[in-house]
Each structure stands twice: as C-alpha cells, then as structure tokens.
Amino acid sequence: MSRLSRRTLLAAPAMPLAAQAVPPNLIFLISDDHSFPDLGCLGNAAVHTPNLDRMAREGMILRNCFVTSPQCSPNRSAIFTGCTAHTTATSRLHTPMPPWEASFLEPLKGKGYFTGALRKVHQGDAFNRRFDFVGTVRDSFASFFDAVPAGRPFFLHIGFTDPHRPYRPGVFSPAHQPAGVRVPAYLPDAPEVRTDIAQYYDAIARMDAECGRVFELLRSRGMHGNTIVVFTGDNGWPFPRAKGTCYDAGIRVPMIAWAPGRIKEGSVSEELISHADMAPTWLDAAGIPRQAKMQGRSFLPLLEGRAYEARTEVFAERNWHDNFDPIRAVRTATHKLIFNAAPHFPFRPAPPCQHS
C-alpha cells in the first residue's frame, strides 16, 4: 500500500492567492456508505486510514457534515445541484437527474474548467455526458490528468464504490481483526457483526490507499499548490439504524478539506455543513456567483478562515429506497427532530442493511 511522504508533498510552497493567475483545480473524493467517525483522524483508531489522516493533518476536518438524504443517488443529486432532492424530482433511489435541472458543472465549464468523473456518479447516463471526460472502472486516475488540456483548470469527481457492500475477506492487507473493531450500542456485539464491521474497515482502508494515489499524482505533476480537495461520504454505513435512516449514523458523514496556502493545516471546524453546500462552494472557489435556485451556501470562507455565516440547522429526507418510507429531519448543533409521515408502516430497513 502506498504511504505518502509529508516532506515531499509540502516541498513546493503554495502560490499566494493574489498571485494565482488560474482558478484553482477542484477534486472531489466521495466514499460510498461511510459514516462518521470511521477514519483514524476522526477518532476511530481501529480503522487504517493513513492517507486521509494525513490529508486532515494538512487541511481541515469538518466534524459536523450531514447529507441531505441517507440514500445514494438522492443525496448525490443535492451535491451536484445545491438543492434538496424533493425540489429536483430526484428523491427516489436510482432516479436520473432530469435534463432541465442545472448543476454546478455548467457554470464551471463556462468559466473554462475541464470537468471529469471517474468511478461512481449515480445520476444517470445522460448526466454523465455533461462531463468532458468520463472514465470507466478500468481507467486509472492518471488517465484524467493526461486528458486535461494544457493551461485549463479542472474539476475531477472520483466516486469510490468502497465501503459499499458486498464485503469479502482479502480486500486489504493486513486485514482488520474482528476483536479490534468498534461495535456501536445499537448493534449486537456478536461475532458475526464484528466480522462484518472488520470487512467494512478493510473496504475503507482500500479506498484510503486510492486517495493516496490521487495525492501522489498531484505531487508528481506539480499541481498541489493550486488545488482544493474535498473528501466526504455519500451517506451512512450499510448497517441497521444507519443507511436509509435519519439517525446520525445514516446522515452524518466524514468531511476533510485540503488546499495548501488556503486552508490552515490541522484546523478543525464544528460548524454544521450540508451536502447541499457543496455546489455553491465549488462555484465560489472558481469565482462564480451562487446560482439563484441553489438552497445551499458556500463554506469556502470557513475553509479560508474568513467571516462566515454559520448554519443553525441542516435538513435530511428519506423517501423511497426499494421501499417507501417518508421521513424528514432537522438537526441543529444540539438537537434533532425526526418526523415520520407514515408511522403505520412496519420497520423496513434499506435492503443493503437487512442481512447485517
């Protein structure tokens, strides 16, 4: 597994912001079914994540990041549009992004950005055609960097499929041991559960190693001085009372932001962040005004240590995920309200959680 050198990555000092002639490159790393706090830097020392831990040391941890939906494609639509899923007709799992709904990609391309996606996007084939470059699962990360036209800033989306199920042994070495995992109070502390969690940790570690390769490419190609990287998860881990629910295990996810010279090393924020805030943040970083329909707000000032109007609450919604379960939630820094619009339905966990 690749281990990055702190000394070499930081050898070239970042260019002062005022001297940057080109807008920053933007890289979005998103894991699949990954709850807070399952990274070493977030306090789970049982999971092996040296590359993301290093990203956190050199950037900012945002400890209170929340998805807009505890389901994959509805939340990803909010990331791209800056709008909650029920306002863009994408609230049902696997619903493609409607062609009439704008995303942040169009303004970025209008500013000259070369846009690309690798791995999972989950907004439908028509949406994928909005990118300038779309890689298959067989394409390397370097294939995108090779395709970027000289002198153009870029936006790159890398959608990992880890740590989504199915889990199997042998995906990472050394494997995490069941005896060392953390079993939350809402799950039974049984051998089968511990083995399942250990394999979930293995998948996270495999994804972490791939994040390390992204940073190696930035270093080797001299791009790290003018690039903003954000890592997060798309929704909570695929276990009961997590994915597909509006409990914190379903909607609270990791987030780390990294940008040498822009983001103070080793900083930590407790501010509430919604995934609907991602789209206006990318536009703000590129010097583009927030689009009128966007419900999210840019947290770039927070990353850069400038005055920032903090959120007082975040919202989440659960709709259809192979079964219909209309639930809404509002979360503040201290309280949460979950409203179940169909309490007469029996408890039906999302199918990826039912065999846990």
How would you sum up this structure, described in words?
- Helix content is 24%, strand content 19%.
- The chain has one domain (28-353): Alkaline Phosphatase, subunit A.
- It has ten helices and twelve strands.
- It is of the alpha/beta class.
- The strands form two sheets. Strands 1, 2, 3, 4, 5, 6, 7, 8 and 9 form a nine-stranded mixed beta sheet that branches.
Strand runs, count: 12
Low-confidence stretches: 1-20
Q: How would you name the CATH homologous superfamily? A: Alkaline Phosphatase, subunit A
Tell me, what is the CATH class?
Alpha Beta
Largest sheet: 9 strands, mixed
Which architecture per CATH? 3-Layer(aba) Sandwich
Q: How many angstroms does the end-to-end distance come to?
A: 28 Å
Radius of gyration over all CA atoms, rounded? 19 Å
Order of helices and strands: HEHEHHEHEHEHEHEEEHHEEE
Q: Remind me, CATH topology?
A: Alkaline Phosphatase, subunit A
Helicity level: 10-25%
Helix-strand category: alpha/beta
Question: Which word captures the global form?
Answer: globular
Strand content: 15-25%
Number of helices: 10
Concise summary:
The chain is α/β, with parallel strands linked by helices and 356 residues long. The chain has helices at 6-9, 50-57, 72-81, 105-110, 125-128, 141-147, 191-220, 248-251, 278-285, 300-303; strands at residues 25-31, 60-66, 114-119, 133-134, 154-159, 227-233, 252-253, 255-258, 267-274, 314-320, 324-331, 336-340.
